[in-house]
Automatic annotation (TrEMBL):
Signal peptide residue numbers: none
Protein origin, superkingdom: Bacteria
Domain Major facilitator superfamily (MFS) profile: 213-404
Protein name: CP family cyanate transporter-like MFS transporter
Presence of the UniProt keyword Lyase in the record: no
């Protein structure tokens, strides 16, 4: 390939990556704004609503180990394309085939997102080895924009469809959820040029086994899971919490959207600052503290001042997630190890993270309110801080290059 073609290939890959990243959260954040409508239409208790918000996160983790197998069989680019196609199909059918179909489609969508989430850090490490931090920031920005768009527009879209359908609220929430298959279809079409000339990556099947005996790898994985648990509690329950505290449904959805949108700033800044420091412990401690402060403010502070806590929460969570992704690259000595660490961290991490939104539903069902949720999020945040102090040290995991 000529030197003039290299930058063009890099730009095309960057654009394609960002379009794919846009699709890694709408399947999740589109549910929360209409969760009440879903629960009413399908007679779901708060506990079952908690299971619905938990399923995609659980399958993010359960499906993550499939990514290395797909790389070996069809290569990373074709794996991303296949996952996008299945994601679009799951988003199309999940609102329309009853309660079982809703849960099954949600699980499949979470699996596809989990696979893509494992694949992208390895592609970034391979194609942009000298720009890992900025690429991670841009990737996180795109992810947040997709999440924010779904959180902020799903309820207005439902209301629009409800008006068109003359009060058929069931059809309205179904159409609002199904709408989010369109970005997945567009991303799949625009990803097609990445398939040219690609082939499976021949790597040993047990290349990541060494990481399971590496304490640093476990610290990175547990930090990924604990900060993700807080994120999915917000994605799954914040609009419902704010509605119960007095906000209108559209305003509550907008609050989640604004919080996610604000993550863009720290999603870029935190990795840039952290990668220039001797280690990342200080940055991690700051963003975790902001996250917990924002969550507690949303739960307990006067509702008139909720927008302050929405801002604090967004700034914190943008930094925690982008730093979790950055650690996957910074703690790996090569692209092969980065892919293995990504699979381990997201597999273990998201499986652990699924407990967060599930416990919120169970505790709310048990207590009849939201006060006890503060104890849960505080415990998770403090545990994340402990893991961050280990994962943030200036060390690298053992290389899995050539591991058999």
């Amino acid at each position: 390939m000529s030197t003039s073609a290299m930058p063009r290939r890099g730009v095309l890959t960057l654009v394609a990556l960002l379009l794919v990243a846009l699709n890694l959260r709408p399947a999740l954040t589109s549910v929360a704004p209409v969760l009440g409508n879903i629960g009413e239409a399908l007679a779901l208790s708060p506990s079952w609503q908690g299971i619905l918000t938990t399923l995609p996160v659980l399958f993010l983790g359960l499906a993550a180990p499939l990514a290395p197998r797909l790389i070996r069989r069809i290569g990373p680019e074709r794996s991303v394309f296949a996952a996008l196609v299945v994601l679009a199909m799951a988003l199309l059918v999940r609102p329309y085939i009853g309660t079982l179909g809703l849960f099954l489609g949600t699980a499949i969508a979470g699996s596809c997102i989990g696979i893509i989430g494992v694949l992208l850090p390895g592609i970034v490490k391979r194609d942009f080895p000298r720009r890992v931090s900025i690429m991670t920031g841009l990737y996180t920005v795109a992810l947040n924009l997709g999440a924010s768009a779904a959180a902020g527009t799903t309820e207005p879209l439902r209301q629009l469809l409800d008006g068109v359908a003359q009060g058929a609220s069931l059809s309205a929430w179904q159409g609002a959820l199904a709408f989010w298959l369109l970005p997945a279809v567009i991303a799949a079409l625009l990803w097609l040029p990445q398939l040219r000339g690609t082939k499976p990556t021949r790597v040993p099947a047990r290349r990541g086994a060494r990481l399971r005996h590496d304490s640093l790898a476990w610290q990175v994985s547990l930090f990924m899971g604990l900060q993700s648990s807080l994120a999915y509690i917000v994605f799954g329950w914040l609009p419902t919490i704010l509605q119960d505290r007095g906000l209108a449904a559209v305003t509550a959805g907008l609050a989640l959207s604004v919080s996610i949108l604000l993550q863009v700033s720290t999603a870029i800044l935190a990795p840039l600052i952290g990668s220039r420091m001797r280690d990342q412990r200080a940055v991690l401690a700051v963003v975790i503290t902001l996250t917990l402060t924002g969550l507690l403010g949303c739960l307990y502070a006067p509702i008139d001042g909720v927008w302050l806590w929405i801002v604090v929460l967004g700034l914190g969570q943008g930094g925690t997630f982008s730093m979790a992704l950055t650690l996957l690259a910074l703690r790996a000595p090569d692209a092969t190890t980065a892919a293995s660490l990504s699979a381990m961290a997201q597999g273990i991490g998201y499986t652990l993270a699924a407990l967060g939104p599930l416990l919120v539903g169970v505790l709310h069902d048990w207590s009849g309110g939201w006060n006890v949720i503060g104890v849960l999020v505080s415990t998770i945040a403090l545990s994340a801080l402990v893991m961050a102090l280990g994962a943030g040290r200036n060390r690298q995991v053992a290389s899995t290059q050539g591991t058999s």
